[in-house]
């Protein structure tokens, strides 16, 4: 038995050595094979990654799903004669169109396509093909499609093709890193010398040790009363600091070790595809579909593919620049008719009014204007600018101005009356002088005459050419209770109960008594400090009339801006905006908007009664095709081509029409041309 056992051991060793040699040999051979493959790729001796559009059926899927019952249809030509059309294909021997029950879809592979926008979306499709000769178990292909639309560029989700050995190496790296992490202790209490710590407790707090359980707790105060030290200090004394230091060093190395063990992480977010493949399984083909939303002026989209080959963390090959794929976008929104204009009846009033309040500060119990007081300089500057613009307005003439000074309720009503009157008169005099100086500076043909009618009975006349009169009137509001009420309603500080208390005092006959009652409430300081100042204003009411207009009102028509906005939204393929704006008009453009959102019956109800122009017939052909009324669809399309020959080629851009062209061989001479 001993000899047998020894012999077996030797035999196993021989097998082990042999297996190691074989595996080493295979690894070397594989490595050489990989290097040869890379050399051939660099020299262009192998087919490279292909980037192109997929073979597209001439019959879109949504149209294929329709059930066309009739194999033979009858339409009328321009002369009213019946024409018979059949589902047909061209006989390869005779070249004749032969009726058939099976429609063979024509296919094409190209670097550009014409795509139809439907329901506000477009599907951009392309194929990425990696030939079998380029696939290696040790490599990872990283492919990056970039989308270019108008002035914007977007990197789409990348595609990763990962070799089996590459992925195994990644997983091995994670395994090694996790093994490293397993050495790290997360809780420092693991380094506590439990025996020594419990021995300390036993000696110094035997009553606690005697009832030791997992739930035993001792307050910090009790702990400190026994030992004169807090718990943390005691625990720290029994910690193995060398082990803790070594553990801290491991924690600090986590980032470095991650980079060491995982040079090429497995990415899961933002990846369209990450497929692990074995070598020698044929070409790898990925069908990429990117759906995009329509946007204003979108007519073309371009996709460019770049990529690299990686062998773990090292990039070993960069794919050469590939010819871009170009997608030309067609849309039924192009049928929007901007020449259609809607009008609204508008009533124009001769007279107009503009009201503005300004905050002019006055000294206590005084009414003279002081420019240096508060924000008076800037406020008065604003008034002057407003007056100048009104006096030179090209549409209106300024007739008169009412100046009203308002005061807050504190103090007696009689005092507030005198203050408000004096302040309104002061402001009126000030701006009377300004208007006189301003009008004097204008050209004589633009001169003004002015009548100032205020409480002082003063008047000033100026004009030699009968310029329009501007009348200034001084008024006053001694106590502005109405505005105060509104400020109270909108106040966010006072409670509902406090506001109710305020409005319980609505006696407008005894205003002084009313104000005295308000002073008794806790909220009165708030309104006195924060709301009363808002009431001390000067209001300007400007009264104007429209130049050259004699009648008080005139009825006219103006362009309906709502309809115009709807048409613009339709042109920009913004159907969600266009439909609500255009639907009330129930007209041609509304029908085009409905078609854009596949609301076919709504569009049909509008278009069927309309005059059958080329545009209307073409749109009806699209609708009829969608709802499976093939005969009507073909009839409308062929009539539209007779009316507008360019629609013969336009039909190949819309899937609903292109399927009819193929199904019934509508233009035999163009059978060999595929339009996208």
What does this structure look like?
By secondary structure, the protein is of the alpha+beta class. The chain has a domain at 345-554: 60s Ribosomal Protein L30, Chain: A. 40% of the residues lie in helices and 22% in strands. It contains 24 helices and 22 strands. The strands form six sheets. Strands 6, 8, 9, 10, 11, 13, 14 and 15 form an eight-stranded mixed β-sheet that branches. A five-stranded mixed β-sheet has the order 17-21-18-20-19, covered by helices on one side. The protein has a three-stranded antiparallel β-sheet with strand order 1-7-12, with no helix packed on it. β8 (140-149) and β9 (152-155) form a beta hairpin. α3 (164-181) runs antiparallel to α9 (254-261). The protein is flat and about 110 Å long. The two termini are 83 Å apart.
Q: Give the CATH class of the domain at 345-554.
A: Alpha Beta
Beta-strand percentage range: 15-25%
Estimated helix fraction: 40-55%
- Separation of the first and last Cα atoms: 83 Å
Mean pLDDT reading: 77
Gyration radius, to the nearest Å? 45 Å
Largest sheet: 8 strands, mixed
Structural class: alpha+beta
Globally, the shape reads: flat
CATH topology value of the domain at 345-554:
60s Ribosomal Protein L30, Chain: A
CATH homologous superfamily identity of the domain at 345-554: OmpA-like domain
Count of helical stretches:
24
The number of distinct β-strands equals: 22
CATH architecture of the domain at 345-554: 2-Layer Sandwich
Unreliable residue runs: 1-29, 57-70, 88-108, 447-452, 454-467, 671-676
């Amino acid at each position: 038995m001993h000899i047998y056992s020894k012999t077996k051991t030797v035999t196993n060793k021989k097998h082990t050595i042999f297996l190691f040699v074989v595996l080493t040999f295979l690894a070397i051979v594989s490595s050489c094979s990989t290097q040869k493959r890379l050399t051939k790729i660099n020299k262009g001796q192998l087919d490279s990654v292909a980037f192109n559009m997929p073979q597209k059926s001439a019959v879109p899927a949504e149209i294929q799903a329709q059930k066309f019952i009739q194999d033979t249809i009858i339409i009328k030509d321009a002369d009213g004669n019946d024409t018979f059309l059949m589902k047909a294909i061209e006989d390869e021997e005779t070249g004749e169109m032969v009726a058939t029950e099976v429609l063979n879809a024509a296919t094409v592979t190209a670097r550009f396509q014409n795509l139809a926008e439907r329901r506000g979306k477009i599907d951009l499709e392309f194929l990425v093909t990696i030939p079998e000769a380029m696939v290696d178990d040790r490599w990872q292909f990283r492919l990056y499609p970039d989308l270019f639309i108008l002035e914007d560029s977007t990197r789409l989700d990348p595609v990763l093709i990962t070799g089996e050995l590459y992925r195994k190496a990644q997983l091995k790296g994670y395994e090694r890193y996790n093994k490293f992490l397993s050495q790290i202790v997360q809780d420092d209490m693991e380094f506590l010398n439990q025996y020594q710590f419990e021995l300390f407790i036993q000696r110094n707090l035997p009553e606690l040790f005697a009832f030791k359980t997992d739930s035993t707790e001792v307050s910090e105060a009790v702990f400190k009363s026994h030992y004169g030290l807090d718990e943390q200090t005691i625990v720290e004394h029994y910690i193995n600091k060398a082990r803790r230091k070594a553990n801290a060093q491991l924690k600090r190395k986590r980032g470095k070790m991650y980079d060491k063990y995982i040079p090429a992480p497995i990415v899961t977010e933002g990846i369209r595809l990450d497929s692990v493949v074995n070598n020698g399984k044929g070409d790898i083909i990925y069908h990429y579909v990117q759906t995009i939303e329509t946007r204003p002026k979108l007519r073309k989209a371009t996709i460019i593919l770049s990529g690299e080959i990686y062998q773990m963390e090292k990039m070993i090959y960069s794919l050469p620049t590939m010819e871009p794929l170009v997608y030309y976008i067609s849309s039924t929104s192009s049928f929007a008719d901007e020449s259609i204009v809607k009008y609204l009846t508008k009533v124009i009033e001769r007279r107009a009014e503009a009201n503005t309040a300004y905050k002019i500060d006055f000294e206590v119990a005084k009414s003279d204007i002081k420019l240096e007081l508060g924000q008076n300089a800037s406020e008065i500057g604003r008034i002057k600018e407003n007056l100048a613009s009104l006096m030179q307005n090209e549409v209106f003439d300024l007739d008169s101005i009412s100046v009203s000074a308002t005061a807050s309720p504190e103090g007696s009503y009689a005092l507030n009356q005198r203050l408000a009157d004096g302040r309104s008169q002061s402001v009126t005099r000030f701006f009377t002088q300004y208007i006189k100086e301003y009008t004097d500076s204008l050209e004589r043909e633009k001169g003004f005459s002015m009548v100032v009618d205020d409480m002082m009975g003063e008047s000033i006349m100026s004009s030699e050419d009968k310029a329009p009169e501007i009348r200034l009137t001084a008024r006053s509001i001694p106590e502005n209770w109405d505005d105060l009420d509104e400020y109270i309603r909108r106040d966010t500080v006072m409670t509902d109960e406090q506001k109710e208390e305020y409005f319980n005092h609505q006696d407008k006959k005894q205003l002084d008594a009313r104000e005295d009652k308000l002073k008794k409430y806790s909220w009165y300081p708030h309104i006195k400090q924060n709301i009363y100042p808002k009431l001390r204003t000067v209001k300007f009411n400007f009264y104007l009339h429209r130049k050259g207009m004699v009648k008080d009102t005139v009825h006219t028509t103006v362009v309906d801006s709502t309809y115009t906005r709807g048409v613009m939204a339709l042109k920009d393929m913004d159907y969600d905006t266009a439909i609500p704006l255009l639907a009330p008009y129930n007209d041609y453009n509304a029908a085009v908007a409905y078609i854009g959102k596949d609301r076919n019956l709504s569009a049909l109800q509008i278009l069927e009664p309309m005059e059958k122009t080329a545009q209307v017939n073409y749109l009806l052909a699209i609708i009829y095709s969608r709802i499976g009324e093939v005969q009507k669809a073909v009839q409308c399309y062929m009539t539209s081509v007779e009316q507008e020959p360019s629609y013969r080629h336009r039909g190949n851009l819309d899937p609903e029409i292109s399927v009819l062209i193929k199904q019934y061989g509508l233009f035999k001479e163009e059978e060999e041309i595929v339009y996208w």
